[in-house]
Specification:
- This protein is α+β, with helices and mostly antiparallel strands and about 1000 residues long.
- Helices cover about 45% and strands about 15% of the residues.
- This is HAMP domain-containing protein.
- Keywords: Membrane, Transmembrane, Transmembrane helix.
Length: about 1000
């Protein structure tokens, strides 16, 4: 295949590089813009972080001042006379100082003093809050409230004092329920156990139920403790005042991440297991930005940038030292969009301008590239056609670039190579017959290498040899492979093929004499030949064989074609290995199938050969259906895979018999199980005969007439002999059991014999469990001569049940019992030797066959095997078993096997319960089955007209069975519609 290229003046490709200069300029502009944007973002980020850090520093300083103001107040109070006051009047004298402290520091919630004897005095400004109103219910014009507790003579006297704006007492209210001991509070204990100012962790105030912190200090040389309360709302107001931006967020936490404050106010307090209120932990709070903060590696004094919900935030953490207490943590977060709004707007404007310039530059570059890349676009289109394996048209490219012209020619050569490779690969992969594949490998590889001669050797690892399986010379296939010696891999190192393998070279030169010596090809000219050896290996590197190609020296294979042939040999090796594995698996499967069929036949000496004869007869009938050109099967044909499925189905059609007990399959008499129980019955008759003789002798001893006694004994013995002969005749099952025979059988069964030995010792556990269903009789006991005992009934276990609705679609009437060994019951069987339970067990083999086969993972082309093998006991009218299929529901192959199975059973001579039928008798019986719609009429007539019945008879039946059959009498019957 040649490319059709426009003939024009070729110019070098570098002249066209000018088309891309503008594109390079756009690229440089893009890089510059990116650098500008990246640098700007870094500056903005640094600026944002600095602003957050400054905000954090200012907020931290003011928070620290808040704590220090409270601490200073506590220190001043510790030096006041109030700490030494012992009465309420003395403490009220210090109110002006306390009022001054609260007025000058509005952030304080209350000031108070706790005394070592349990007294307590507190002053707070009045705030019109619901909780305070409910607790104090103050009088009108209240501006200040004092809370006092005095311990007088061991009694606590609590009172509330209400003052107006000018500190004039409005009401002195005694509160008996106001019980408070300052000595139990944490702030009191901490101040007494430490020197200097102490700061508490946030807690809920006793009076107001508000959260806050207490700054406390023990008075000098006194055991009284002064305290100053700062409510968290006050701290929150301070932090909110210094918020950098409206969207900024902050967290004030204790050292153990207990959250004191948030930008939204005070968090909800949590209750401990003891019912006390505590601060919530950071891990217990929920929210997008909070969840993000939890995972940040944020330590005190550090700053970091986080992204949440698509927006960047500057985050800073500060540690706040608290006088006399654990440090606090202040976390601040501000969105960049608020911190850097103007700067971001300027940056975005610059980016928009850069983007517009970039779009203009890209448009120009695309237009220029369009002009320069048009030939490449055409080559890309051709490459896509090759990718789609479209080789219908030659490569056509309009180009003026020398390099593109060369590329088009290379692609055209590649296209031809791929087309040839795919053609050969498909041919090798499509062949499923192993022998035809060997021929195809040699012929196709010869064509690819342009070699007149080719020899294919296959490796035999066990023997260590290379055996010739195919040899061709100028399209002539050599059949006499024996003329070419089998190579010993370890011994015949002088052979050229083995030299190629040993030296790991692709080819060597041979003289005509060497060609004649080693390959038996008589060639006079030329003087030298090239032997090319292609090792065929599987994916593990194991040698499968060698393909030897013989070429003349003048037409020696080129390096390019050798590469192609070497690559193709890999495909050939894969096809060879695949088909060889399939062939070996088929051989193994066939061996397993025949092994199973042989085991089934060997299981019973009376059915040996059944599993071998049915496949032969079925395939005879199938071949007749394929060969006929008239009738309903004129268009019938079988593919190779369908024949394989039929073959496997025939051999496995009775595989379920491995589950059928041998004594049921081979039951020749009615009382036979593992042995014929007629011997037990005979022994009972022998006992009765001995009893009769003993009774006669006993009568003579007692004075009876010897002659009359002898006559009676002879009559009794004759009757017993006759009765036993009748029982023995019934046991054979050769005649129909009429009603009169059943009556006599039951009458004989009523005779009694005396048993004196225990029949429950020395027996198996299973038999003993059946006998245990009824109580043991006291010995000696008279028993019936024949009986249907409870112990004769074998119950059907759950796994032996067949539900009406089952996954296989079986429609079988399952007997209640698994077996019934009753003697009267079995001897009363009307026809044959099998009871209802045993006949079901016999029929159940086809159920087991279907179940076993459907469990096997047959490949797709063998999916029909269970249906073919499992349908040979179905009837055309839907009364067969196990699925009650009709003719329309059965495949032709299943109906063929039904005919083969019946005919083989009728004519077999190795059955214990019947003799093989004459040929004419078998045909007549099968004709009646046709009339009763048991077997396919059209197939039966084909069975006769094709001569399959006679061909089978001559091959498998006894000579004395083969008699004349007038098939015309059976062909005149009208053909029913299928």
């Amino acid at each position: 295949m040649r490319s059709q290229l426009q003939k024009s003046k070729h110019i070098p490709f570098h002249l066209h590089l000018g088309y891309f200069f503008v594109g390079l300029m756009v690229l440089f502009a893009g890089v510059t813009t990116w650098f500008f944007q990246n640098s700007t973002e870094k500056i903005l980020m640094l600026n944002a972080q600095n602003r957050v850090n400054n905000f954090a520093k200012v907020a931290t300083d003011h928070l620290d001042n808040l704590y220090r103001n409270a601490a200073v107040t506590a220190e001043l109070m510790a030096d006041q006379r109030i700490v030494r006051a012992t009465t309420l009047e003395q403490r009220l004298d210090s109110m002006p100082y306390l009022l001054t402290a609260l007025r000058t520091r509005p952030t304080l919630a209350a000031v108070y003093v706790g005394y070592p004897n349990g007294d307590f005095f507190l002053l707070r400004p009045w705030r019109n809050e619901a909780a305070l109103i409910q607790r104090f219910n103050p009088p009108k014009n209240t501006a200040w409230i004092a809370q006092s507790i005095e311990v007088i003579n061991g009694h606590l006297i609590g009172r509330y004092l209400f003052f107006d704006q000018n500190a004039h007492l409005i009401e002195n209210r005694i509160k008996p329920d106001y019980q408070f001991d300052p000595r139990s509070r944490t702030w009191f204990k901490a101040a007494q156990s430490h020197v200097g100012v102490q700061s508490s962790l946030p807690y809920v105030f006793y009076t107001t139920d508000k959260a806050g912190v207490t700054i406390s200090m023990a008075a000098n040389q006194q055991s009284a403790v002064v305290g100053v309360d700062v409510r968290l709302e006050t701290i929150e107001a301070v932090l909110s005042y210094y918020q950098e931006t409206p969207g900024s967020k902050f967290l004030l936490m204790t050292a153990d991440t207990g959250v004191m404050l948030m930008q939204d106010g005070l968090p909800n307090m949590q209750r401990t297991e003891q019912g006390q209120l505590r601060l919530p932990l950071l891990a217990e709070l929920k929210g997008d930005w909070l969840n993000q903060l939890k995972d940040l590696p944020l330590a005190a004094g550090t700053s970091i940038t986080m992204t949440t919900q698509g927006e960047q935030w500057a985050v800073s953490a500060k540690s706040i030292a608290v006088l006399g207490g654990a440090s606090l943590q202040l976390w601040l977060a501000s969105p960049h969009s608020e911190l850097l709004g103007p700067a971001i707007e300027i940056r975005n404007r610059a980016l928009v301008i850069s983007a517009l310039l970039l779009v203009l530059g890209v448009s120009l570059a695309l237009w220029l590239a369009r002009m320069a890349s048009r030939p490449l676009i055409q080559l890309n289109s051709e490459a896509q056609r090759i990718a789609r394996f479209d080789f219908s048209e030659p490569i056509q490219v309009e180009a003026r670039i020398t390099e593109i012209i060369a590329l088009a020619k290379s692609m055209d050569q590649m296209k031809g190579t791929i087309e040839d490779f795919l053609h050969l690969s498909n041919a090798l992969a499509a062949e499923t017959n192993f022998q035809r594949l060997l021929v195809l490998i040699v012929s196709e590889m010869r064509k690819a290498a342009l070699a007149p001669c080719g020899i294919l050797y296959l490796a035999e690892p066990k023997q260590g040899t290379l055996e010739v399986v195919q040899a061709q010379n100028n399209d002539q296939i050599r059949e006499a492979f024996g003329e070419l010696a089998t190579l010993k891999l370890e011994a015949d190192q002088t052979h050229p093929v083995l030299q190629l393998l040993q030296q790991q070279v692709s080819s060597i030169l041979l003289t005509p004499e060497q060609v004649q010596l080693y390959f038996n090809f008589v060639i006079a000219e030329p003087a030298a030949y090239q032997l090319v050896g292609l090792p065929l290996k599987d994916k593990s590197g194991q040698l499968l064989g060698v393909l030897a190609l013989l070429l003349t020296a003048e037409e020696a294979i080129t390096a390019k074609r050798l590469s192609f042939v070497t690559a193709l040999s890999g495909t050939a090796a894969v096809a060879l290995n695949t088909q060889r594995l399939i062939e070996e698996q088929k051989v193994l499967l066939e061996a397993f199938i025949q092994l199973l069929a042989g085991a089934i036949d060997a299981k019973s000496p009376y059915t040996g050969g059944h599993c071998q004869r049915v496949p032969e007869l079925t395939k005879m009938l199938a071949n007749a259906a394929c060969q006929t050109t008239i009738g309903p099967y004129a268009d019938f044909n079988l593919t190779e895979t369908e024949r394989e499925a039929l073959h496997i189905a025939c051999w496995l059609h009775d595989c379920g018999k491995v589950t059928t007990p041998e004594y049921v399959v081979d039951k020749a008499t009615k009382l036979e199980t593992l042995y014929d129980r007629l011997h037990e019955v005979r022994m009972r008759f022998e006992v009765l005969k001995r009893d009769a003789q003993i009774q006669a002798l006993q009568a003579q001893i007692e004075g009876a007439d010897p002659q009359q006694s002898a006559m009676q004994l002879a009559q009794a013995l004759a009757q017993l002999d006759d009765d036993f002969a009748f029982i023995a005749q019934c046991n054979q099952g050769g005649e129909f059991m009429a009603e009169d025979k059943i009556v006599r059988l039951n009458a004989i069964a009523q005779r009694q014999w005396l048993r004196t030995l225990d029949d429950r010792i020395g027996i198996s556990h299973e038999e003993n469990s059946r006998k245990a269903r009824e109580p043991a009789a006291e010995l000696p006991v008279f028993e019936s001569l024949l009986a249907d005992k409870v112990e004769h009934q074998f119950t059907r276990s759950p796994r032996e049940q067949m539900p009406a609705i089952n996954p296989w679609g079986f429609q079988l009437k399952v007997p209640e019992l698994l077996y019934n060994r009753g003697e009267i019951y079995n001897l009363s069987v009307a026809r044959g030797t099998l009871s209802e339970e045993e006949r079901y067990k016999i029929n159940e083999h086809i159920v087991q066959t279907i179940i076993m086969l459907e469990k096997l993972p047959f490949p797709r082309h063998l999916q029909q095997v269970p249906e073919i093998a499992g349908g040979h006991h179905e009837k055309m009218d839907g009364t067969g078993y196990p699925r009650k299929l009709t003719q329309q529901q059965m495949s032709p192959l299943a109906r063929m096997m039904a005919i083969a199975d019946i005919f083989e059973a009728l004519t077999a001579v190795d059955r214990p319960y019947k003799k093989g039928k004459l040929l004419s008798e078998a045909i007549r019986i099968m004709q009646s089955m046709v009339e009763n719609q048991h077997i396919d009429r059209e197939l039966f007539q084909l069975f006769l007209t094709s001569g399959v019945y006679l061909k089978y008879a001559k091959q498998f039946m006894q000579a004395e069975q083969i008699d004349a059959v007038a098939i015309e009498a059976y062909l005149s019957t009208p053909v029913s519609s299928a």
